[in-house]
Every structure is written in C-alpha cells, then in structure tokens.
Amino acid sequence: MLPGYWQRTFELGPDPDGEGELVATLVSRGHPDEDAAHRARDAVLVVHGFTDYFFHTELADHLASQGFRVYALDLHKCGRSHRDGQTPHFTTDLARYDVELERALATVAAVSRARVLIYGHSAGGLITSLWLDRLRRSGGTARAGVAGLVLNSPWLDLQGHALLRSAPTSAALSALGRLRKHTVVRRPGTGGYGTTLHRDYDGDFDYNLTWKPIGGFPVKVGWIHAIRRGQARLHRGLDVGVPNLILRSDRSVREVADPAAIQRGDAVLDVTQIARWAGCIGNRTTIVPITDAKHDVFLSVPEARRQAYTELDRWLQWYRTEHRGECTAPADNDGSDGHG
Asked: Where is the Serine aminopeptidase S33 domain (predicted)?
C-alpha cells in the first residue's frame, strides 16, 4: 500500500462474466478516522482509465492542498482489485461499475458530510459520465452528495479510421461481442505512451508495472463492445446534473516506439473527438485544451503539467464559490456494505 494511504475492499459478488468473485478497492489519502476527514467540506473521488489504477500521489497531494479529502477507486478487476483468474479490466457492461461507485459515495458520506467532486480519466471519464446521468435520473446527483465532475481526456469516441465507427463495423462488433467476447482485437504494444511515463523508461513517475504494464493490456471484443455502447449512449446526449470541467491536450500525436516523439501530445486518443462530443456530457461544461499535454494531462511534461494544475485550480475556485453556503452531503448511510 502507498505510505500514508488507507484502503477498504468492497465485496461485489459473482462476476456476471464468469470470472469469480468481484471486489473493488477504495483508497483514501490518510486514514478516514482522522479529525481532518470530519472537518472537510469537500471530497474528491478519483476513477482511473483502462490499463490503469490509482498511483498518482502528486495529484492527490495537490487536491488535498486545495482542501479536498481525496479518495480513489480501483474498479473491479483493476489494480488492487484484480484477482487470480480474472481478465484485467474486462467487463461486458459499463453499468456494472455503478454498484462500487455508489458504495464509495456511501463510505465518503459515512466519514464526513463533504460535497463530492467526481474525477474520471479516459475510460473512467466515460464510465463516470454515464453513471452520473443514471444517478441523476434515478434520484439526483445532489441528493447523493455529488456536486461536480472533472474529466481528464475522457474517452468519448473510438479513435482511428472512420470505418471503425461505421454502422456495419458496429453491427459486426455487437455480434462478435455476444458470441466470442474474449476474442482479442488489439494485443499489447511494445512501448509507446507507457514509456513516456514510468521512471524505468523515459518518464517521471513510478507505479506497479503488473497493474499498469508499459504496453497495455489486451483489448477484447466484449469489452470494446461495452465501450462502444457507452459511447453511443453519450452521443445521444447525457446530463450529469452537475457542472463539469474537461481537460485535454491541444493535439494528438501518432503513437510510436520513440518516447521522445510522443512527449508533447495525446498518443492514445483523438483530441478532436473529445472536442466534438464534450457538449454531450451536460449543460454546464468548461473545456480547456492544455498545450503539449499527454493523454493524462497530469502525467505530462512539467510545463504542461503546471498549466493543467493552474486550470484545475481556477475551475475549483469557481466550483467552491458556486457551492458556498450550500448544505453538504447527507450522512444517512453508514457505508457498512463494504468490508475492510
């Protein structure tokens, strides 16, 4: 476990995709029984993307310096939540993450009456946006204690040639997803984006290479079909019910083996697609391109990273002013549906 961090495991029951018992892991910066947890008026719940898990203590420290109690969720089959015999990150329905996201919210509410800001990166940005739209329609984000959303390079459409997004391709993907969901459609690479991040290669960060391998995990057809269904739902228009900030790079770069060639741009997603579909998140969206940022803007080269933090802080100042004087989240759920 990261020094100075605490974690709690949620047992989620049998995997509908037949890979054993599922768990999710909620990580907290500092122990939840500390007095500061009860004084905090704001909390943030961080949700990672594909081939990822929570490790970014620099981001957590920055959010804490802004007065936020920091939590992060390793989704089922990801990072700390992966179990033997499970396919990392594999699911055939993104809505299955709702249960663990709502348990995380309940745990935060049990610790303090803080407003909760949701943060999602890449696939986590898609997952959290879809979840908040469902949450709003089923009872309201405010009632659940959620007051805002920050998206870091959210995965809003499938990158690559337009043929990959065509109706015939989608139909074929749907059929294959039902019949052969574990068919691999993209194998792990030999480097690329991952080599710009990790200290053992050309990056500034340290993390577990088993949980976040340099070349990524295999992409399977059942999972990509779930992503495409989620993106299609987003394209019809969501309303997450809260103000939201979208940070992205100002450019995409082609992923190549040479890390020096992809240090200053998004080597994973097409940023024009993020710009195109960002308006489908909700009605109060702020979109900020970060010059020379990588796919994860907070793992960028130092000058781009500083700009990303500056833009985040500017929006957070507005966010806290906007919610000044409002009641914080209700504490009527003791979070006892998880297990330590």
From this structure: 40-246
Q: Over 276-328, what HEC string results?
A: HHHHHCCCCEEEEEECCCCCCHHHCCHHHHHHHHHHHHHHHHHHHHHCCCCCC
7 DSSP β-pair partners: 27
Of 260, 329, 274, 276, nearest in space to 122 by CA: 274
* Residue 70: inside a domain: yes
Both structure tokens of 138: 């089923």
* Residue 167 falls inside a structural domain: yes
From first to last of its 340 residues, what are the pLDDT tens digits of the chain? 789 999 999 999 999 999 999 999 999 998 766 665 556 789 999 999 999 999 999 999 999 999 999 999 999 999 999 999 999 999 999 999 999 999 999 999 888 788 999 999 999 999 999 999 999 999 889 889 999 999 999 999 997 545 455 565 666 666 665 667 889 988 888 778 999 999 999 899 999 999 999 999 999 999 999 999 999 999 999 999 999 999 999 999 999 988 999 999 999 999 999 999 999 999 899 999 999 999 999 999 999 999 999 999 999 999 998 887 564 544 444 443 333 3
With 0-12 CB in 10 A as exposed, 13-18 as middle and 19+ as buried, what is 81? Answer: buried
Flag whether 336 is in a domain: no
Compute the distance between CA of residue 33 and CA of residue 250 in angstroms, rounded to an integer.
Answer: 41
Question: What is the span of the domain harbouring residue 120?
Answer: 5-322
When divided into structural domains, the chain yields a total of 1
pTM of the full predicted structure? 0.91
Residues 6+ positions from 72 with CB-CB distance below 8 Å: 26, 27, 45, 46, 47, 48, 54, 60
Separation CA 131–CA 125 (nearest Å): 10
CATH number at residue 88: 3.40.50.1820
